[in-house]
Amino acid sequence: MRNKNRVVKFKKQKNINIGIIIFSIMFIYVAINVYIYFTKEHISIYEVKDGSNSEDNLITGLILREESIIYSEKAGYISYLQKDGARVAKNTSVYAVDDSRQILDIITSAENPISLTKENSAKFQYEIKKFQTSFSDHNFSYVYEFKEDANSTVLELLNTAMIEKGLDIQEETGITYNYEILTSPDSGIISYYMDSFETVTAETVNRDLFVTDNYERVALRSTEIYGQNSPIYKLITSQNWSIILPLTKDQYSKLAGKETLDFTILKDDFKTSAKLHLFQKDSEYYAQLDMDKHMANYIDDRFLDLEIHMDIIDGLKIPLTSIVEKDFYLVPLRYFTMGGDSGKNGLTKLTYTKTGDINITFVPADIYYQDDTYGYVDTRLFEPGDWIQAPDSTDRIQLYQTGKLTGVFNVNMGYAVFKRIEIIYQNKEYCIVKKGTSYGISLYDHIALDGTTAVEQAIIY
User: Residue ranges of the RND related barrel-sandwich hybrid domain (predicted)?
Assistant: First the structure.
């Protein structure tokens, strides 16, 4: 008999895929960390920089001058005979008024050139000779005076020639000639803008005047016809001028007692000094800087940014939002000792057992700060009520008394560590802290921008 074929079925052995298990674990780990990252509150970081209080010495000042607006005596088209910033003597020609501009257009055309007479040329040559005999290397400013005098003389000669030329054209053409030249009522400097600040004085100054966003100035020169009593130009009649500075109470106190003040005009980095006068109006504080030079350099300015030269404090600059306070145990200095082979500073801790025995343990403890009596010790090292013993003595105390230190949380290592600071200057936004403080911060350290969001020793990432 043939043996029947027997089929033996074996159970298929299941193979464990280690790769899938490892991948699953890694996936879960990554997913958890991603979830934690997006759900936890993140700490913003600030990098410690060098800084000073010089920014608080930057002040925008308001310029006050002896100035007045000159108005037109008659209606017509205005021709200005002086440039902006020109110095003029009393009765110097400043502008001309023409009813129609017809003759003026003919005079200024290329077909009708104006020539000076021999008498006029002689007058100009006299000004040159006077300069040659008076010039000195030790008084170079006379060059600028000569330039202004020469310009004035040329304009006077041209104005006279224009009038004579206009009368000739009137006879030839029959056109009515109403060209009239007006002169300055006083000596001074010409300016062709106004801003409604011309009548402001130190007595009428207020904080609203320093809001430069609302400041507007009006150009006075135009090609349009002017009506009678229209503003034509501004005349500044004195070299004396003032800059009014709005001060904080702290700045006012620091300047009290000073008679002069050194400062820099930031527009052109010009360093100078001026007589100082302090005054108050209600709860507002001001400084008045009085000068009698350099006014012409800033004739087109109403406001100037200044850096006043007060005591400059240098250190490390940090935002006020980073600052926190931390409690420390106050430990009498005589309780600190050097511990055994470690060579570290610390305290001798006493622990009482249930049987009444005493265990003595040395606990390394840094002194974050000390005064004449106490050292400040981190409260995380001891529980409230722990006993410590003085070296070479049986004196012992319990740790209860605490004091606060001001500091920030350093996050250089990826977790928050308290660092003590000593503030040497502070305003509403930032402070300057002393460099080289023990257990303090250093330049380029990373600290928590908002100290209230950091937890000591907690990982920040």
Answer: 67-200
Neighbours of 323 (CB within 10 A): 19
Name the pTM for this structure. Answer: 0.61
Domains and CATH numbers, the chain: 55-62+239-312 (2.40.30), 67-219 (no CATH), 318-453 (no CATH)
Q: What is the pLDDT of residues 279-333, one digit of tens each?
A: 999 899 999 999 999 999 999 899 999 999 887 889 999 999 999 999 999 999 9
Rounded Cα–Cα distance for residues 385 and 397 (Å): 9
